[in-house]
Amino acid sequence: MEEQRHIEGERLQKVLAEAGIASRRGAEELIRQGRVSVNGQNVTALGTRVGPDDEVCVDGQPVDRDIGPVYIVLHKPRGYISTVRDTHGRPSVLGLVPVKTRLFPMGRLDADSEGLILLTNDGGLGYQLTHPRHAIPKEYLVLVEGNPTDETLERLRYGVWLEEGPTAAAEVSRAVTGGEGVWLRIAIREGRKRQVRRMLAAVGHPVRRLVRTGIGPLKLGALPVGKWRFLKGTELAELRGAATEAAVPLVIAIDGPAASGKSALGQALAARLGWLHFDTGMLYRALTVLAHRRGIDVHDEDSVAELAHQARVSLVRPGNRTGASARVVVDGEDVTDELYTQAVDADVSAVAANEEVRRALLPRQRDIANQGRMIVVGRDIGTVVLPGAPLKVYLDASAEVRAMRRQQQFEANGQVVDREDLLADLRRRDRYDRERPNAPLAVADDAVVLHTDRMTLEEEVEVVMKLAKERFPALALGAPRRGG
Ligand code: CDP
Ligand code: CDP
Q: Looking at domain 71-242, which CATH architecture does it have?
């Protein structure tokens, strides 16, 4: 084959298509119209072959046959594989495009999946778009068996437990339904193997059809099945922009002692930014609730460690709304309303001091925070969980002021508590948090420290918003989230 091509040259329309001038059909049209010449001679015969040294012109302009980066958008049909070779002899998507440089898909699609696939020879962009740490969201239309309840959609949103661990949160909604059955629209950032199929199987609604409709800002649109087109310059710029934005973690870390106002500030900022408030203390509190329920002594380190490793603690995004606080689900049960009692307050620091507890919760927190657009609140967020956070705030306040604030909080909930008890409890928890060997409460080197004894919450918010504008210059802060 290779030999023959050198002797006979390549068909002109193929040369034009490979050079990115037009599709094969489009190139044939150009030839028929008499707009193509070879070595100065007009050519209208479609079968004409040209060698590597022949000069090919379109409309008198020489065609550059040394192809630079090529980006192709393809509507992959079912049954095609997205890699080059297949042991089962199935056709490859590469056979659907005329460009012969070494193209590879940016993010594969299974053979039985359809839809948007990007093919390129540009390894740099491929890496940017598919690297899990700055992956941009991919959107799918999914035809499922049965009719999932709202509760099931909620489970898909906050993460489904797969073999290798829980999935990160997804955006899930019902799509307009055709005759075939129920279609869902799902956007995820991770790209684990057959993730969408496995997520839906896990909630009892196996996938019947899976169509990728978007990769970040790029949409499949009306491109027919099996057809391809070149990526537009503007689309390439948008994709690059999205990948760059995804590479800067959109997180604000807030740490500080108990009752310093972290949650209040986190919630206020989340509302202002339209981000999610993720209070990591909820995870430690959830484990404490679980220990109480199972009658486990929180000082029994081994039992608590075992509990931490087997409990399925996950975070629930409150519907599709942003700017709100997440809820916590343990082994399928929402325990959010049990987290803030004096009994939990009394034991949570001991649970949090357990090394295995911290080891179990660390990857989970990072996974959640990696979704971005999040205010992450805790004790060790700036120092241990997200040391690369672009903006870190450490809130401090005197124990007396904190005890007073806590008392007011309890009273607002109709609970009567003694201020002296609260103060003693806060001091004890401070000591626990600061002195534990593992990820103790400490001020990160690059954190901004706010002493809030005499600050109002509004003042805190203004200070942090100002910093956020500096640290996230690419964001039009306060604007609604792109893409919904
Ligand atoms: O609201 P408060 O500050 O009292 O506590 P929280 O933020 O709900 O956290 C509960 C407990 O979990 C804290 O007292 C810490 O001991 C622990 N924790 C931690 O060790 N590391 C975190 N990142 C968050 C909480
Ligand atoms: O999350 P953390 O335990 O650090 O404290 P919080 O529950 O957010 O805050 C304790 C209470 O202090 C809340 O009722 C706040 O509204 C209040 N507060 C504050 O956070 N910041 C101020 N500057 C003044 C009061």
A: 2-Layer Sandwich (3.30)
